[in-house]
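Title: Request for sanity check on LysR family transcriptional regulator prediction

Description:
We are preparing a figure and want to confirm that the structure record we downloaded matches what your pipeline produces today. Could someone re-run it with the sequence below and paste the raw structure tokens into this thread? We only need the token string, no images.
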Amino acid sequence: MLNATWLNTFTTLCEVGHFTRSADVLGMTQPGVSQHLRKLEAQVGKPLIVKDGKSFTPTPAGEALFKVGLARRRQERDLKELMQRDDPDVGEVRIGCSGSFAMWLYPHLLERLRTAPDLALHLTAAPQGDVARGLIRGDLDLGILTTQPRQPQLEAKMIMREELCLVVPKPMRNQEVGLAELNELGFVAHPDGHEYADELLGRNFAQEYQGSDHLRMRTSVNQIGQILTPVAEGLGFAILPRSGVDAFERRGDVYIVDLPIKHHHDLWLTFRSGRSNFARIASVISLIEKEVFALN
């Protein structure tokens, strides 16, 4: 049997990547962390890290043990949840989704918190792959995905079809907008921007569109709340899901171009099998479905 305390120390060390900061997280001294590491290495009979100056790299045995440590934490968290009373207003719910959907969803989650002082809601904006992996690992309770998951441990329901929008400065609302006008204005790039451009512009300007790498980039930003700011200032165009546009605080300063060919993403509310029976998770599922219905 692995010593649970030593394993927790080693798992924290791998997560933090630094002996002194790990000691701070654990409320220990640095020599104490080193002692736990040596005892765990003696227990398993193999070195667990290779030091390189002030940094270190886990050995293959260390990597395997780190995975065991993470799995034990998830098991303990799940056990704690099962032991808690099943109350919709008590406990934690961890949600992952795209940045644009997070902008729209977060104010609704804050309203939920006002009525449930013992409920904790954690919202993470992340790429689709990270959300799916977080759900599979158990790090997330709920996720919003743009494709139906195929993993057997996940369940999903389609909650809406979200339009992908070409957004330009409001003064252009009465102008004809073609690819030449867009390139003259300049592209506001963001982490999903090139993929969105290929999906939307490729459909609507098929004869002349050569790919997002041929767009004239004016600026780039990876903060979802700032993507439309240069558009509102007349400095470029952007492509975002409608939830991100509607949540923009200067919505009146931008305009969604009415393109002849619309493109939508299906949004799937996804969760681990069986977890929707937990009252607090079921309550958040119900909240999201209610607000999405109102949006449509």
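Thanks, this matches our download. The longest strand covers residues 154-169.
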